[in-house]
Design brief:
Structural class: alpha+beta
Number of helices: 4
Pfam family, one: EGF_CA
Membrane topology: Multi-pass membrane protein
Helix content: 10-25%
Number of domains: 5
Subcellular location: Cell membrane
Oligomer: single chain
Order of helices and strands: EEEEEEEEEEEEEEEEEHHHEEH
Strand order of the largest sheet: 1-2-4
Strand content: 15-25%
Largest sheet: 3 strands, antiparallel
GO molecular function: calcium ion binding; G protein-coupled receptor activity
Number of strands: 19
Distance between the termini: 144 Å
GO biological process, one term: cell adhesion
Length: 336
C-alpha cells in the first residue's frame, strides 16, 4: 500500500459523477454546495443525481426576517425586501436575517409616485394609493384608491353639495365652489362676497350726502330728489333708477341757479362731491343690473354712460364719462 493513500480507498477519481458534483474518490461522488442526492452529500450509486436544495422551503433553516422574502436559485439563495420596502443601504439583496434592514418606502416623497396630477398620493405600509383631492372625484371607470386613479372636478353646484345660503348663487370653481350674492343683493355686515359662508341681504340705495358747509337751495333740492330715488329704490328696477339719477344730475349741471353765486372753492367742492358721489352710487347700483351692456342717456346732452353689470371694478369707459361730466361741471359751475 502506498503512503498517502487511506486503506481500501483508491486515489483515482470516479469518472461517472453526475452534474453538480465532484468525485470524492474512485468509487464515490460528492454533491456540490447547495445540492444533495437521495443518499446524502456523498453517494456511490451510478443512478444518483445531485438536485438543488431549496433553501427557501418550509423545512429550511434559512430566515430572511421581517418584510423580506427568500429567493431560491440553483445551488444557492438570497433574500430581498418585499414590494414597498427597501434596505436602508439601498442594496437589493442580502443573505440572512442579521443583514435585514428592510424599511417602508414612502413612494409619495421618493419620486416613485406615479399618481395622476389630479390625484393625491397617500403613503401606506408597503405601498401607496392615489386618492382624489377634495373637490374632485374619480372619472367613470376609475376607482378611488388604486394607483391608477384619475380624477375630475366635482360640480358641487349642480350636485347640490354646497353650503351656500339661499340669498346666494353657487359658482363652481376647479376643485371647489363659491357663494355669490344674487343680483340685487349685497353681503350682510360681517360677510364677504364669493365665500363659502357668504350671506346676503337685498341691496339698498347707497348713502350720498351733500358736501358739508355748502349753503345752496339748488343743491338741497338736488339731494331731496336723490333721497326720493333712494326711498323708492327696488333692486329689480336698478336700471330705471340709474337713468333717473343721471337725469337729475344732468339737470343740476344745466341749471345750477344759486350754485353760480358760491365762491370758487365752494364750487370746486360741489363739483368734486358730485363726481365722487355719482361714481360710488353707480358702482353699487350696477351690481343689480342684468347681464349685457346697457346705455344710459342724459336728455340735456351732457353725455352717455355705459354700465357693465357683474363687473368687479367700475367700468373704465364710465369713469371717462364721469371725467367729462366733471369738465362740464367746471365749465358750468366754475365759469372756467
Amino acid at each position: 500500500m502506498n503512503k498517502g493513500k487511506k486503506a481500501g480507498i483508491s486515489s483515482d477519481c470516479a469518472r461517472w459523477c453526475p452534474p453538480n458534483s465532484t468525485c470524492a474518490n474512485a468509487t464515490a461522488c460528492r454533491c456540490s454546495p447547495g445540492f444533495n442526492s437521495s443518499s446524502g452529500v456523498i453517494f456511490t450509486s451510478l443512478l444518483e443525481i445531485c438536485e438543488d436544495i431549496n433553501e427557501c422551503g418550509p423545512l429550511s433553516a434559512v430566515s430572511c426576517g421581517k418584510f423580506a422574502d427568500c429567493q431560491n436559485t440553483e445551488g444557492s439563495y438570497y433574500c430581498t425586501c418585499i414590494p414597498g420596502y427597501e434596505l436602508a443601504s439601498g442594496a437589493r439583496m442580502f443573505k440572512n436575517e442579521s443583514e435585514n434592514t428592510c424599511q417602508d418606502v414612502n413612494e409619495c416623497t421618493s419620486g416613485q409616485n406615479p399618481c395622476h396630477s389630479s390625484a393625491h398620493c397617500l403613503n401606506i405600509i408597503s405601498g401607496y394609493k392615489c386618492r382624489c383631492r377634495p373637490g374632485w372625484k374619480p372619472i367613470p371607470g376609475s376607482p378611488n384608491g388604486p394607483s391608477n386613479t384619475v380624477c375630475e372636478d366635482v360640480d358641487e353646484c349642480s350636485s347640490m353639495q354646497t353650503t351656500c345660503h339661499k340669498s346666494t348663487i353657487c359658482i363652481n370653481a376647479v376643485g371647489s365652489y363659491k357663494c355669490r350674492c344674487r343680483r340685487g343683493w349685497e353681503p350682510k355686515p360681517g360677510f364677504q362676497d364669493n365665500q363659502l359662508n357668504t350671506t346676503c341681504e337685498e341691496m339698498s340705495f347707497p348713502t350720498w350726502t351733500p358736501p358739508p358747509r355748502i349753503k345752496s337751495q339748488r343743491l338741497s333740492h338736488f339731494f331731496e330728489r336723490v333721497q326720493g330715488l333712494g326711498r323708492h329704490f327696488k333692486p329689480a328696477l336698478a336700471q330705471d333708477t340709474i337713468q333717473d339719477l343721471i337725469q337729475v344730475v344732468d339737470e343740476l349741471l344745466q341749471t345750477p341757479e344759486d350754485l353760480e353765486t358760491l365762491s370758487r372753492s365752494d364750487q370746486h367742492c360741489v363739483a368734486t362731491s358730485l363726481l365722487g358721489g355719482l361714481e360710488d352710487v353707480l358702482r353699487n347700483l350696477s351690481q343689480a343690473l342684468p347681464s349685457g351692456t346697457l346705455t344710459f342717456n342724459a336728455s340735456a346732452g351732457t353725455g352717455k354712460y355705459w354700465g357693465l353689470p357683474q363687473a368687479d371694478l367700475f367700468p373704465p369707459h364710465l369713469s371717462r364719462s364721469l371725467t367729462r361730466m366733471c369738465d362740464h361741471a367746471c365749465s358750468s359751475v366754475l365759469h372756467s
